[in-house]
Amino acid sequence: MSLDVLRQLEPDFWRAPSAHNTQPWVLRYQETTVEIGWDPACALPAGDPTGRDLRLSLGAFTETCLIVCADAGLAVTFHPDFSEPDRRIGHLVSAATSYVTPFTTDDVRRRMSARVAYQPGRLDDEVVGQLDELAGAGELRRLPCRVLIRPLYEADRYLFGTPPVARELRDWLRLTPRDPRYDTDGLTDRALDLSRWEALGLRAVLARQVYPALRRLGLPRILATSSSGLLDKDGEVLVLVAPPTCDRQGQVAMGRVLMRHWLLLSRLGYATHPLSQIIDAAHTRGVLARALGIDDPDRLLNVARVGRPATPVARSARRITPA
Ligand SMILES: Cc1cc2nc3c(=O)[nH]c(=O)nc-3n(C[C@H](O)[C@H](O)[C@H](O)COP(=O)(O)O)c2cc1C
To answer: For the chain, N or C: smaller number of CB within 10 Å?
Structure first.
């Protein structure tokens, strides 16, 4: 494996999705292999205290690296070697043959999260069958959107009403093109599908100086109410469920599954809008687990609205872009 060639593929690796678009991955080039690790400055200790989304994002990144390498003719495989103290998930190493995948670099480039309106309707059974085939040891469950209206409202109230979580979100919001990191990382107004006025409003109410007072005056309830229409639609939500015993390395592997699911959906003209806050808050995680008949709520990994976007979707920023 030529490490120089691999290095040139980084802009495509970086198209992997990550919670809050923090792009937490780090590639550490060694003599013949490349270690995949993470930067703690890009973790989300308040919103993602267990590191579940961090590990899913690193898994999605790993899958992206393997797909892009295979498409470039590099025979590369991944050796898992998870270490929390070393902030490492494993290594990209030379292989005898290329990674076998139905996906290409073009698929990686085209996939985007979509927070716009979706056309009404549910997934075809055939698509669901294909998703199940890609699920590995995991399980994919579906629910009508409307079942989660109340849990989403409660989860958003928790998100906006818990100061460290709201502060962390604010730190990754890029709500004006004047933000120096607008083209680099985080969540832009355009990616969040906010109008200029909505973006200005959100920026104002989350501002350091006013948030504490507005929080006491009921801001979390108002913000949660404003997003609750999202699921009052004829559509569905996908929930990725881990196998009964899934350790941290297992969650990285499930991140690879998540990426395969999102790539397949994207190739078929669908998109996803993750709603991790429903799993982040203990109460709504429990509600969702009960709705699915799952005993251990910690098996829930990801929840996302799915559908065909009804309007154009804005591309998210990346720290590393093509030259
Ligand atoms: C594990 C994981 C959790 C995510 N959770 C959320 C979420 O709760 N809400 C949301 O709007 N987007 C969520 N996203 C989507 C990211 O914000 C998105 O991937 C990132 O902004 C990059 O944009 P892109 O997917 O369009 O490339 C999540 C992504 C991952 C990988």
So the answer is: C
With the most atoms of ligand 1 within 8 angstroms of its CB, the residue from 13, 14, 20, 112 to mutate is 20
Rg of the chain over CA atoms, in angstroms? 19
**Residues facing 28 on adjacent strands:** 35
Binding site membership of 152 for ligand 1 (Cβ less than 6 Å) = no
Query: Whose alpha carbon is nearest atom 12 of ligand 1?
Result: 274
Strand bridging mode 187-188 / 173-174: parallel
Domain ranges of the chain: 3-110, 125-307
Pick one of 3.30.230.10, 2.60.300.12, 3.40.109.10, 3.30.420.10 as the CATH number of 3-110: 3.40.109.10
Tell how far the Cα of 290 is from the centroid of ligand 1, in angstroms: 24
- Please work out whether the CB of residue 53 comes within 6 Å of at least one atom of ligand 1: yes
pLDDT tens across 106-152, in order?
Answer: 999 999 999 999 999 999 999 999 999 999 999 999 999 999 999 99
63-107: per-residue pLDDT in tens?
Answer: 999 999 999 999 999 999 999 999 999 999 999 999 999 999 999
